[in-house]
Design brief:
- The chain has helices at residues 11-17, 33-43, 83-86; strands at 2-8, 23-28, 63-67, 70-71, 92-96.
- It is 22% helix and 25% strand.
- The N and C termini lie far apart (44 Å).
- The protein is an alpha+beta fold.
- The protein has a single domain (2-96), classed as Ubiquitin-like (UB roll), CATH 3.10.20.30.
Length: 101
């Protein structure tokens, strides 16, 4: 399976990557968090280290991933994303988490 995955980035990452709106990425095989983020960083190298730690490749603490109404933030990076994401019917959302008290 391969297809175009639609990624929605928070405003500050869209500005950094100089993109307006959603990003459409061609992902070969079954889309996973890792394959989508690899494709995103390959297309927009300025985003390397902003979503995942450069050294470990792990999700940064205040970044969350959502798709199809589900929080996928704690899923393993190689877990298949929902089928609707792979078809481009639903977006893969990268969200900056809020903290404070």
């Amino acid at each position: 399976m391969s297809g175009s995955v639609r990624v929605v980035l928070p405003a500050h990452l869209r500005a950094l990557a100089a993109v307006d709106g959603d990003v459409h990425l061609d992902v070969v095989g079954t889309p996973t968090q890792q394959s989508v983020l690899d494709a995103l960083e390959a297309r927009f190298p300025v985003l390397v280290g902003t979503i995942r730690d450069r050294g470990t490749g792990l999700r940064r603490p205040f970044v969350r991933f959502f798709a199809c109404g589900q929080d996928l933030s704690h899923d393993a990076p190689d877990t298949a994303l929902p089928e609707q994401v792979g078809r481009g019917a639903e977006p893969f959302l990268v969200v900056g988490a809020m903290a404070g008290g």
